[in-house]
Amino acid sequence: MARIRLTARTVAALTTERTQEDFWDELVPGLALRVGRGGSKTWYVRYRANGRHRRLKLGTYPHLSLADARERARRILADAQAGDDPAVERQLKRSADATFRALVEEVLEAKARETREKTRRERRRIADAELLPVWGDRPAGSITRRDVVQLVEAIAARGAPVMANRTLALIKVLFNTGLRRGFPGLESNPAHMVDPPAVEQGRDRYLTREEIRILWRALEDEPPVVRGVFRLALLTAQRIGSVCALRWRDIDGAGVWHIPAAHFKGKRPHLVPLSNEAMAVLEELRPLTGSGEHVFPGRGTGRRPYFAGTNKAMQRLREKAGIPHWTVHDFRTTFRTHATRAANPEHPSDPAGLGIAPHIADAVLGHKEASLGFHRYTGEPERYLLAEKREALAKWGAFVRACITQGGE
Fold first, then answer.
1. Which band of pLDDT confidence, cut at 50, 70 and 90, is reported for residue 118?
2. pLDDT of the residue at 311
3. pLDDT tens digits for 294-312?
4. Confidence of residue 350 (pLDDT cuts 50, 70, 90)
5. 343: helix, coil or strand?
6. Smallest Cα–Cα separation from 79: which of 111, 50, 101, 38?
7. What pLDDT is attached to residue 231?
8. Is residue 392 classed as helix, strand or coil in its secondary structure?
9. Which of 23, 206, 211, 367 can bridge 334 by disulfide, Cβ–Cβ 3.0-4.6 Å?
10. Hey, how many other C-beta atoms are within 10 angstroms of the C-beta on 110?
């Protein structure tokens, strides 16, 4: 990169036989005059900010003289030395929609059409609490990998490692989606290749037979809707959101619960054959809610027309039953644990498992694993292994009934 001592006379006389050629100033390092074959002359300044090399256009000659170009270049270089990025700031002035806050709003709105309500609320909560207070008014394109690392490590350091991981995951979603949508100023995802700051351990909590019995009896004192929600969640091993949204019309004459794609995590229909024990729970509720749309109606004043009070109810049940550290999602782990343990056909009274094949248990849970054969099944995916799921849930219903009537382990 050749440097020359630029003067007013030199600048006026410079020409080139190339398409374009840069002449770098000796007096102000980083200042260059780009000369085109046709005679055009444009001032640029090159600098480094936030770990990136930038080239910023200053103006054209002769509208911008050598003296003025040097003055502007010095200011920009001083700002860059202080940690600012003049190129990004200029871009922000040209586009008021280039801030990180604008990126968050655009991406969350675009993603709202394809995510569950619970996911939408969680992303909004993380953005409002962890991201916008720090980066909200910054140009989205100015955020670097170093910024991301420091932010998530600070969250982990305050004793919230899982939140740090969730925040990093959201950052990746925001920038990847922004890049696909051509958001102004984005050139790369600064969270790319950033490792989660914490290693999360999967939950291994499940209810023992005795805990199933205790919890079932603790539900006796709860209102009918609360009692029904938790018991049906246990007997069907389905996610609590799907259970709460159950409508009477979703149950067909063959006793199969049709979960619509809108209320299933996999965004596809899912069929759940109902055991005798599960049907008994529904029949108990039919006189109370059978005339309405939802099996578990809400109070009518909330955002959803169906029951949404599982968190408060779970807190009461934890205290009442004296079973610590369990969640409603543990019903699914409880089913899979007991269902896939080997059975003992020689001693039926032995508290062994149900001997259900793992891929059938996963089909009940709605896990779309390649090993289940979905990629080879050419019929309606929701009907795959339907007979096997009916048999598995019948065994599970009988197992729960035995826990309640015969006591625990």
1. confident
2. 86
3. 999 987 655 678 888 888 8
4. very low
5. coil
6. 50
7. 96
8. helix
9. 206
10. 13
Rounded-to-integer distance, Cα 134 and Cα 170, Å:
15
Token pair of 130, please? Answer: 């962890």
Which residue has tokens 């109810």? 313
**CATH 1.20.272.10 applies to domain 209-406:** no
Q: Report the top-level CATH class of 100-180.
A: mainly alpha
Most confident of 37-46, 153-162, 276-285, 326-335: 276-285
pTM over 0.70: no
DSSP structural state of residue 294? B
pLDDT in tens, 309-333: 888 898 899 888 888 778 888 999 9
CA 299 remoteness from chain centre: 29
What is the domain partition of the chain in residue ranges? 3-93, 100-180, 209-406
The correct CATH number of 3-93 out of 3.30.70.100, 3.30.160.390, 3.40.980.10, 1.10.230.10 is 3.30.160.390
The helix-helix angle for 66-81 and 86-94 (nearest 10°) equals 100
Same CATH topology for 100-180 and 209-406: the answer is no
Q: What is the largest CA-CA distance in the chain?
A: 104
Nearest to 268 by CA among 383, 112, 139, 103: 383
Is pLDDT above 70 for 97? no
Question: What share of residues in the chain are helix, strand, coil (percent, to 5)?
Answer: 50, 10, 35
Classify each residue of 53-79 as buried b or exposed e, where b means 16 or more C-beta atoms within 10 Å of its C-beta. Answer: ebebebeebeebebeebbebbeebbee
| C-alpha–C-alpha distance, residues 61 and 57, integer Å | 12
**What tokens appear for 187 in the block?**
């050139």
In this prediction, residues 349-374 reach a mean pLDDT of: 76
* Cβ proximity of 218 and 321 under 8 Å: yes
Element (H, E) at 365: helix 358-365
